[in-house]
């Protein structure tokens, strides 16, 4: 059987503090148990995605994913990666919904290509290389997506500095994700919020201070395992997000469906106006939350925190290659 190496890397959700983070307030993100898996074997410089088709074919200079091309160039320059690989990506992370799917793919591809080239995939290197891809995908990436995907866990970030929140997240507190299916551009939502900030700066600066206070309180709640308090803080955070103009009728209906079904807290996660809503839900309430979300015609995802970040994955091939 030809040699094949596989890696997987998690997606993420923002638990609290999105938007306010743009003006230097702290935010909390968490890696979650939805993965981009990449397997590499000997081939002719191709990268394919089960979801998106052909991304790179170096033999014919086809570059449909400039971020991954950047990863390959970086690995060639730093470690002498040759064009003798075939990478297959299979990701269960929803695309374009603020869950860091492109970062998880870049992290996992970097990890798998390094392993394939016989280089021990040091996390610092994986972080650096995947951040190069993030710079291709996003104008000014905060680094939160590839940081959480590389290292896992729950992290607080503020002005580009990341710190792990010490937590032993209990198995019976889950995160339910509902994708509204409404697509929007993060850039334009952020621009609208900043305009509102300028127009009502005295009022807005107090909302931003409240958001900062809220995140600091939430860090303590996570550290001490007070998830009822964390849920309430998420509800308050959602109110602040509504006040800066990023909620919508659809998002409110999802948030209230989760609360009605017994979630400890529910809020927009990410840029808002569309994208995803997250709920903090105890195991006993998960079935009713799922049912409520399904009744809105949406397909919920139930996840836990991924503490580990990127890692080797088993090669699940059943047939001989
Ligand atoms: C989008 O996922 C998160 C925002 O806070 C923007 C950003 O931090 O760059 C809205």
From TrEMBL:
Gene3D superfamilies tied to this protein: 3.30.230.10, GHMP kinase, C-terminal domain
Catalytic activity of the protein: (R)-mevalonate + ATP = (R)-5-phosphomevalonate + ADP + H(+)
Active site: 145
Main location: cytoplasm
BP GO terms, sorted: isopentenyl diphosphate biosynthetic process, mevalonate pathway
Domain called GHMP kinase N-terminal: residue spans: 69-153
Domain (GHMP kinase C-terminal) ranges: 218-295
Self-association and partners: Homodimer.
Known role: Catalyzes the phosphorylation of (R)-mevalonate (MVA) to (R)-mevalonate 5-phosphate (MVAP). Functions in the mevalonate (MVA) pathway leading to isopentenyl diphosphate (IPP), a key precursor for the biosynthesis of isoprenoid compounds such as archaeal membrane lipids.
PANTHER family attached to this UniProt entry: MEVALONATE KINASE
Descriptive protein name: Mevalonate kinase
The organism of origin for this protein: Thermogladius calderae (strain DSM 22663 / VKM B-2946 / 1633)
């Amino acid at each position: 059987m030809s040699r094949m190496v596989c890696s997987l890397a998690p997606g993420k959700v923002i638990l609290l503090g999105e938007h306010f983070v743009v003006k230097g307030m702290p935010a909390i993100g968490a890696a979650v148990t939805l993965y981009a898996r990449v397997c590499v074997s000997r081939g002719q410089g191709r990268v394919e995605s089960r979801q998106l088709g052909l991304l790179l074919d170096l033999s014919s200079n086809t570059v449909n994913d400039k971020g991954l091309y950047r990863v390959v160039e970086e690995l060639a320059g730093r470690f002498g990666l040759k064009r003798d690989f075939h990478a297959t990506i299979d990701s269960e992370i929803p695309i374009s919904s603020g869950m860091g799917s492109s970062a998880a793919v870049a992290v996992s591809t970097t990890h798998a290509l390094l392993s394939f080239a016989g280089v021990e995939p040091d996390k610092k290197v994986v972080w650096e290389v995947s951040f190069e891809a993030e710079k291709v995908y996003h104008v000014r990436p905060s680094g939160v997506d590839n940081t959480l995907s590389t290292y896992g866990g729950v992290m607080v970030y503020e002005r580009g500095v990341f710190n792990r929140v010490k937590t032993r997240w209990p198995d019976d507190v889950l995160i339910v994700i509902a994708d509204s299916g409404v697509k929007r551009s993060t850039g334009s939502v952020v621009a609208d919020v900043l305009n509102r900030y300028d127009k009502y700066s005295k009022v807005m600066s107090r909302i931003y201070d409240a958001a900062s206070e809220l995140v600091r309180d939430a860090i303590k709640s996570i550290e001490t395992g007070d998830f009822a308090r964390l849920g309430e803080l998420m509800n308050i955070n959602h109110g602040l997000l509504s006040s800066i103009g990023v909620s919508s009728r659809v998002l409110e209906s999802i948030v209230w469906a989760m609360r009605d079904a017994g979630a400890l807290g529910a809020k927009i996660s990410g840029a808002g106006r569309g994208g995803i809503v997250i709920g903090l839900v105890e195991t006993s309430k998960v079935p009713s939350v799922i049912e409520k979300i399904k009744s809105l015609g949406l397909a919920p995802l139930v996840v836990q925190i991924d503490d580990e970040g990127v890692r080797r994955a088993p090669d699940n091939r059943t047939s001989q290659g």
